[in-house]
Design a protein that fits this description.
about 240 residues; four-stranded antiparallel beta sheet; Rossmann fold; binds adenosine-5'-triphosphate; alpha/beta
Length: about 240
C-alpha cells in the first residue's frame, strides 16, 4: 500500500506563510476530502505535491512497499478547478492524442470513444473544439484523462462545482471506483460532497492540517464540528 507522507511542510509567498511546519499522512485506498476557508492554501498544497510550486522546507514523499522516495511528476494526476486543456483540439482529438502520447503508461487498449463515453460526453460533442466545451464538460474530460494514467496520487481541486447533478453523480462514481488504486485528495467547499465520498476529512486551517477528531463524517454533528473548527482554529497536526 502506498502512502503520501507530508512532513513539516512550510510554504510561503514572499512574506505570507501559507503552510507552516505541517504534517499529514495520506494512504492508498482512501479518499481524503480537504476542507478549508477561502485562501487557506488548499490549491497551494496541491501545487506543491504536483511540483508546480516549490516549498521552503519539509518534505513530501511517496512510500511504496516500505521504501520512501521523492515524488516525480509521473506520480501525480491533477484535476484543476479551471482545466488547462489544448483548446484548439476537439474532445476526440484530445483523448486520442493523450492516449497516443501516454501509450506506455496506459493499461489495456481501450480507445478514445470508450473514454469519451466514460466522461459522459454525448457523441454530438466529441468533434467540438475544447474551446467550445462548457466548464463542466472540460472538467469531465480532464478527470477521465487523469484517471487513464493510473497514477499513485490523484488530486482534484474543487472537482464538482461546475458539473450538473447527473454528471456529478457519474463523476463521484468514477472517483470512488478508482480509490483502491490511488491516494485521492480532493478539495471542496461542499460539505455534502465531502460527506458523500470521503473516507477521511482533512482540515486546512491556520496554515496546518488536522483531522476532525472522533466525529463521524456521516453524523449530524459533523457540520457543526467543521464549522466550529474552521471558525475558531485547531491547534494540532495529526
Ligand atoms: N502565486 C501566488 N503568489 C502569491 N500569493 C499566492 C499565490 N498563489 C496563492 N497565493 C496566496 O496563497 C493563499 C492560499 O491560496 P490558495 O489558492 O492555495 O487557497 P485555497 O485554499 O485554494 O482557496 P479557495 O478555497 O478560495 O480556492 C492566498 O492568500 C493566495 O492569495
Amino acid at each position: 500500500m502506498n502512502k503520501l507522507v507530508v512532513e513539516q511542510l512550510s510554504k510561503s509567498f514572499d512574506e505570507q506563510n501559507v503552510l507552516e511546519n505541517t504534517s499529514f499522512t495520506f494512504e492508498q485506498g482512501k479518499i481524503y476530502g480537504m476542507l478549508g476557508r477561502n485562501g487557506a492554501g488548499k490549491t497551494t498544497f496541491f501545487d506543491c505535491i504536483a511540483q508546480d510550486e516549490q516549498y521552503q522546507s519539509g518534505s513530501i514523499e511517496l512510500v511504496q512497499d516500505g521504501d520512501s522516495r521523492d515524488l516525480t511528476p509521473m506520480d501525480v494526476s491533477y484535476v484543476h478547478t479551471e482545466p488547462n486543456l489544448p483548446l484548439f483540439l476537439t474532445g476526440y482529438e484530445f483523448i486520442s492524442y493523450f492516449l497516443e502520447v501516454n501509450k506506455n503508461r496506459v493499461a489495456g487498449s481501450l480507445d478514445a470513444k470508450y473514454y469519451l463515453n466514460l466522461a459522459g460526453l454525448e457523441e454530438v460533442d466529441w468533434n467540438k473544439l475544447l474551446k467550445d466545451y462548457s466548464q463542466g464538460m472540460k472538467t469531465k474530460i480532464q478527470l477521465v484523462a487523469s484517471l487513464v494514467l493510473n497514477t499513485p496520487i490523484l488530486l482534484l481541486d474543487e472537482p464538482l462545482t461546475t458539473v450538473d447533478v447527473i454528471a456529478a453523480h457519474e463523476m463521484k462514481k468514477l472517483i470512488t471506483d478508482h480509490k483502491t488504486d490511488a491516494i485521492i485528495i480532493f478539495s471542496t467547499h461542499i460539505l455534502q460532497l465531502a460527506q458523500d465520498i470521503s473516507d477521511e476529512i482533512v482540515l486546512l486551517h491556520q496554515k496546518r492540517f488536522s483531522g476532525v477528531g472522533d466525529v463521524d463524517i456521516h453524523s449530524s454533528e459533523f457540520e457543526n464540528e467543521v464549522i466550529a473548527r474552521l471558525a475558531n482554529g485547531v491547534e494540532t497536526d495529526v
